[in-house]
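2 proteins. here.
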Amino acid sequence: MNDLSALAGRLQVEVLLRDGRIEAVETRLQRPLVQISRLLVGQAPEQALARLPLLFALCAGAQQVAAVRALEQAAGWQPMAEVEGGRTRLSELELLRESLLRLVRDWQLPLPAERLKSLLGLCQRGIALLQPLCAMGAAPLASDGRLADILGELAECWSTLVLPSPDDWLQPRLQRWREVALGGSLPAVFEPADIPPLLERLRAGESEASIAGEPRITGPAAFADGGAPAAMQIAQRVAALLRRAEQAAIGQPVRPPVAEDLLAEEGVGLAQTARGWLLHRVRLSAGRVAVWQFLAPTDWNFHADGLLRRQLLGVQVAEEECEALLRELILSADPCVAFEVRIAHA
């Protein structure tokens, strides 16, 4: 393969429908994480970091931030607080950019085109200024005021936005799902306290996104009332995406936890994305990458026994509405890969 960017995943969701009732749900997430890991193993840390943007089309900045945190921890390097703060800001700007694109494209957020262009442009300028901090052992940026000006303009641009509530602009689209009751309780939310038991499994070579055999959820997918009708849950997730974008725009970054009690030459890095927590784990040997593992929000939110299966199993829905409902639920959990839906009729 000579085009590293061609590495991509795919999500397939198939349900068995009998007399308007969903009797089976199969979620198949195909992600070439093993192949990507092989491209990084054996590389010097700097070489591996240079490859990452070629391997991930989405959340490339967050991938670099999580990766450099893991590599520096494995190498025993303690970054300066200003550097870590700048890395968090980079991932927040990327989160804002990708959230806005999702909200406008997938959910028709009524954001004027010129305002969207301004916000995206400010995000891009800030990301470009912060990019040098993704290097191993990076030094703090020069205090020339450019970043402060961009962040101030971004916060002001956002503060003058006048947007309707998600209920208002989503109501016509979601009206048809107001009476559809979803089944099952939501999986637990992925929390920093889950990292130690997760590390034990990763060290053993297991890469499934679960804790003690149980799936988790992260990002906007976690912000819904599991007992609410489908329309309300979808609206709650979209509203959470918008709230998180606002938090990033006005300068309230979410600092990631730091993994502790690690093995020699082991590092774990986390970063926030528009979809939730991203985790990288690395092991170094003789100054080169010996092990590299990834867990992205999509791995958590689309676990085979996770969110979709638990909510859809047993749901009553008209045959002509089933595929549309599945697509809306999948979009509200925001996979980072292309997806397709299949309906099998019993």
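next one coming up
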Amino acid sequence: MSHEQTASENSFPSLWRLFLIFFKIGCVSWGGYMALVSVVRAEIVEKHRLLRDDEIMDGIALAMLLPGPVAVNVVAFVGNRLRGTLGAALCATAVILPSFFLMLGFATVYFAWEGQEVAEKALSAIIPAIAAVIANAALKMRGKALPGPLEWTLAAIAAGLILFVGGIWIVAAIIVGAATVGMLRFRLSSRTETSATAHKNPVSFGLGSWLAMAFLVGCLALFLLFPSLDITSLSAQLFSLFAGMSLMLFGGGYIFIPMVQEAVVGAQGWLGPDEFAASIALGQVTPGPILISATFVGYKVAGIAGAIVATIAIFLPPATLIVLAANQLERISHHAYYKAAQSGIRAVVCGMIMAAAVSLLRSIDFSGGLEEAWPQLAIFGVSLIALAGFKRDEVWVILAAGLVGLLLP
């Protein structure tokens, strides 16, 4: 049975099944961003065969162009593709919940928490394993994304630009340039046959789309106008701040750090510098997206209710935007020009995924020479062999790496 046939047959998984899949992903996706995306790809494409690689890469490209956390936006894209708006909401919620509860627990006891050294030892071993997971995802995607020399060249250029230049404008330029090359390079058929993944009845800009647009405009308006409004509710202030900022976070979660620091430490004075640093450090320790640090801030400001409001505000608007954009793009997905553009985009997405793996490896501390760095390099090599050679599950590879980190001196 072909992969395409299997994906088609499983195109409508139950909501409960989706929740369990993404909750599991949220429990083990340390590193956020491409780490989480790579585990999503392994579960959805390889293990459960619900979508194809090209569909996942379409979601990654769209998420990179839109504001908000790339990984959670990709999850929302996948959920929307499988089960519509409800699927998007359920999958995004499921993947965030493990990090939310962990962060809530850390925020409650972090002053008395003395296990930070243990967590750091585990994390130092998990990072190279995550790099292996990401590299393995890129290797698996290369079959469809890189069919010829031109695609390999595009992927190499994209990886080089990400590693040595970086920045959201570079990402945008890479994707636009790749789309242009794709349309110029590939001969376009005069026929515009509907692809196997296109809906027979493309999504129209109906009432739901207008409501989503109104919600997004309202979030931005509230953020811009809030200083002039006489509102004393801390929950309302949290929602206004994080919902507005979430729609300005082009470039991923790390752009969030200086923005939120200026807002909650400088402007609002809700957290001290040390407390803010703790929120970022704990966001790194938990699996899932770094933006889960908003939960810590919300808890500090308004308790559990504040944690819930801040978490919803930082993730909901970008997820709404990507579902809205994906539904409208679905209307043109059967056109030959769109397909040609996507062929170029998928090549550079594969290159950017490999760049993410290299970036994680570059974070290994070589200041003490190979004698100190070799355990992490060995973990990367063994993890990649286990994943690519022995087809081991990403979850067990990550957990095993964390255990090794705890045992290392």
